[in-house]
Write a structure and sequence with these properties.
five-stranded parallel sheet; binds iron/sulfur cluster; Rossmann fold
Length: 252
Amino acid sequence: MINNKPRIAIYDFTDCEGCETKLVSLREKLLLLEKKVDIVNWRLGQEYFEAGPYDITIIEGAPITRHEVDLLKELRENSKILIALGACAALGGIPAIMPEKDRKYWYEKIYTSQYAPRGIDAVPLSAYVKVDFSIHGCPIDENEAVRAVEELLAGKTPSYRGYSVCFECKQAGNPCRLLENKPCLGPITQGGCGAICVSGGSPCYGCFGIRDEANIPALRKILEKFADEKEIERYFSMFHSRTEDFNKNKEK
Ligand code: SF4
Ligand code: SF4
Ligand code: SF4
């Protein structure tokens, strides 16, 4: 059980800050939450900050410089609970799409060979430190963030939804893309977003992370019926180029 008025810190590494913007958009809910917690460090949301240790540290973004990696390790040491906020932090996400060889090409093309890049490969926070829970999404669903923090405040371990995006997609009444020979990663993706992309006419690219019991080889077999390897790779590499589950199942 966490102390009364737990101290929360919100940090960001390299990312677009879209997930933090979702937290800001909570407005009244955030103010209500602030009656139960002290947000003592949040660069994007307030001017004052207090040093650690913290009860809960929420981190958005992927660490892509040595300085960010060192800060991540320091925050882990100074936090009872560490939460990854959004796909960049939980999966490597968008910053992880480009491999090092391609980065080198674009660095040179854009900044000339005089530029000395400091960037390293973007990988999930969990590649460096223990992550206690991930609030998934690109961007996150802000209500899922509130749910996770409230469960922690109640002394519980937050849980993931017990269903895939397909369940929410069926609830929304969408026709299934796979039955129309269109790719979709819904069957292997953790639910919680309400199948927002599919309802809006787009495929699911899996930003909520891969479900524990996901059968990736089975989905690949279905996709292979109507999509070539390059297209399948494009889907899986959108958010999962650096996630262990995808890479583990790649050869099957
Ligand atoms: S997960 Fe998506 S919305 Fe959130 S910070 Fe990363 S790129 Fe931005
Ligand atoms: S469209 Fe995608 S998310 Fe919806 S049921 Fe089919 S596979 Fe699942
Ligand atoms: S439908 Fe898929 S890609 Fe879209 S928000 Fe949900 S999990 Fe992410």
